[in-house]
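To: structure desk
From: M.T.
Subject: fold request, one chain
Message: Could you run this one when you get a chance? Sequence is below, nothing fancy, just the single chain.
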Amino acid sequence: PLETTRERQPPVIEIVAARDISKGEELSHSYVELVASTIARRARLYELYGFTCNCCRCVDDSADNGRFMLSLPTTHSASELTRWILCHYNPYIPSEEKQDDIIESMVKVRQSMIFDPMTHLQAVDAAKKSKQQAKFFMMNGDLKRELDCLENAVTILESAAQSSEAPLNSMTLELYEIRGERLASLIVAGETKEAISECEKIVAFLCLALHHIRYHALLGLQLFTLGDLYESNGEKRKAYFTYRWARKVLVVSQGSKSDMVLLLDGKIIL
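Reply: Done. Structure tokens follow.
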């Protein structure tokens, strides 16, 4: 998609460009959630609108001049990949601080690789059961057991991903969804350091998943959360760079006068 919408008082809808648009280029807008697999997107579109999507991303994401191809380092671990993404995708970190010590070489990968459902179906089923248990404990006010179950779900999926020996497999849609739930519970529990680690992985996933639309509000909101977590943990420099990045995204997706951007303006000045 080339567009994103800003919330306004009905019946007004404001549509803004989510990236630079060439003269004569066709405008497009996504009807479904972008952070979903090709199979899930096409199935949802067929269910709602009765057509099979044949856009370049659904049919062949290596087309369109490589817009859906990613250049990533061939690192040996998921944590190194996360660190590299957070550093290199943030436009405000000084270039001299963007160390490439973990890089042996770069490789081109299809963007859809991070959306594809995990092939370890047993791990996915086990993680879902643990997630259901977490929901039960949440409804009964047992935060500790809820966190234990969510951590177990993450561990199950991470172990399955690590067996493939490919760091990118640790950034699947299933892991992203469970990490989001665990992040919310960690924040409630006041576990700031653990929340930072989880939020960093969520942001890294979104950077790759939304590589072709870098001003998506979902990324901006998670960056805002990550900045707040850094600040709470006394990491002022990281918080500053993350807040600036969040503002760059949200000023496009929500507007320069939105409440979120105004809050960020105050945090950046301080």
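Reply (cont.): DSSP finds ten helices and four strands in the chain. Let me know if you need anything else for the meeting.
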